[in-house]
TrEMBL record:
It comes from Staphylococcus gallinarum. It holds the Pfam family Ribosomal_S17. This is 30S ribosomal protein S17. The keyword Secreted does not apply. SUPFAM superfamilies: Nucleic acid-binding proteins. Belongs to the universal ribosomal protein uS17 family. GO terms for biological process: translation. Keywords: Ribonucleoprotein, Ribosomal protein. One of its GO terms (cellular component) is ribonucleoprotein complex. One of its GO terms (molecular function) is structural constituent of ribosome.
């Protein structure tokens, strides 16, 4: 059997837990522009 790669761990904030078995989590990531170097927030 082959080993799995380590998965990336995301840290987020719980936005909604009104549903029975589901929660909505907001994960903020930042992406840097290749040419200009400006960082923008991806929601």
């Amino acid at each position: 059997m082959s080993e799995r790669n380590d998965r990336k761990v995301y840290v987020g904030r719980v936005v909604s837990d009104k549903m029975d078995k589901t929660v909505t989590v907001l994960v903020e990531t930042y992406k840097t522009h290749k040419l200009y170097g400006k960082t923008s927030k991806i929601l």
